[in-house]
Sequence to fold (70 residues):
Amino acid sequence: MSYIKPQISDEELCFILQTTAINLSRLLRMDGGFSRELARSPSAPNAAQIKEGTDYPDRPKPVYLKYKKV
Fold:
């Protein structure tokens, strides 16, 4: 939404943020990660295990989101 810069009221923005928070809380797992499904989500680590000095040729390049790396 920040890309298209829609003209929305404070009330609409509040509704969007509340709805997003509710939806994200439904996907939050016990280990602090997020599930892609509401049920039957397999457990998986939240971080990749990257060892220093090891080459990972199939690893995708990082995607930059504002000032942080993913």
Notes: The chain has a mean pLDDT of 75. The longest helix spans residues 10-27. The first strand starts at residue 64 and ends at 65. Strands lie at 64-65, 68-69.
